[in-house]
Design brief:
This protein is about 5% helix and about 30% strand. By secondary structure, it is mainly β. The chain has an 8-stranded antiparallel sheet with strand order 1-2-3-10-5-6-7-8, with no helix packed on it. Strands 11-17-13-14 form a 4-stranded antiparallel sheet.
Length: about 240
């Protein structure tokens, strides 16, 4: 497990917290698959790796250690102030979103150099959030029966679409690709029964939005179903998960 310090943001008396933990591969090792050497802790069985690297220019490639193409990469500069750029296969390598902002998905090669990740490396562009200094990259590749990344089309109705994953999700992250609105985080530890309506938003520092049907879903044995017509999760538009 892990131990908490005394900072109020993580250990305030009588406050409630949630933690989402993924098992990587233990101590990081050097990876020379890319044009620059990265430090990688990879769990190929569960499709997750933690990568640190210092890219210097657009076109640098970085090994991720997964032996499968990542569908989701969350990046953060560690030695400078920056946003959290996100690569998602549903947006593509010529696009990006920011985990800490509500912006719609943008277009441009500044983040991923318009190069789709391979089974061994991903490519960074010229933006200072991914290049020009030290950065960490959390890489996720889908594993059948365990994890899934993709997109769905909303229908603008309270009886929303069903999204098949092939397993019961324990954690779900969604974002409207085509418009400015919130990210949503759902999980089965805060919401223990349907409808699932305890929501956290990584783009804000607010507490949990609990017991509201505005962005409610059902978490099911083989996927999830949208139970709201709110544009944040179910306009006639495209959403990533």
């Amino acid at each position: 497990g892990f131990t908490l310090g005394s900072n109020a943001e993580g250990n305030n008396n009588n406050d409630t917290y949630v933690a989402w933990c993924w098992k990587a591969g233990g101590a990081a090792v050097s990876n020379t698959d890319g044009t620059i050497t990265s430090q990688v802790s990879a769990n190929q069985t569960h499709g997750f790796s933690i990568v640190t690297a210092t890219a210097s220019s657009a076109g640098d490639t970085i090994g991720h250690g997964l032996n499968a193409s990542p569908s989701l990469i969350i990046a953060k500069r560690t030695n400078a102030t920056s946003h959290w750029p996100v690569y998602h296969s549903s947006v593509g390598a010529n696009g990006f979103t920011y985990l800490n902002l509500t912006n719609a998905a943008g277009t441009g090669s500044d983040f991923w150099n318009n190069v789709t990740p391979t089974s061994s490396v991903f490519t960074v562009g010229s933006d200072s959030t991914v290049s020009g200094g030290s950065a960490v990259f959390y890489c996720f590749a889908p594993v059948e029966g365990y994890s899934a990344m993709g997109s769905y089309e909303g229908n603008g109705d309270a009886d929303g679409p069903f999204v098949f994953t092939g397993f019961k999700p324990a954690f779900l992250l969604t974002k409207w690709i085509d418009g400015n609105d919130q990210w949503n985080i759902y999980d089965v530890k805060r919401s223990t029964f349907n409808v699932t309506d305890d929501i956290l938003r990584p783009n804000y520092d607010y507490g949990e939005n609990s017991g509201s049907a505005v962005d409610a879903i059902d978490i099911l044995s083989n996927g999830f179903k949208i139970r709201s017509s709110n544009q944040n999760i179910n306009a006639a538009s495209t959403y990533l998960y």
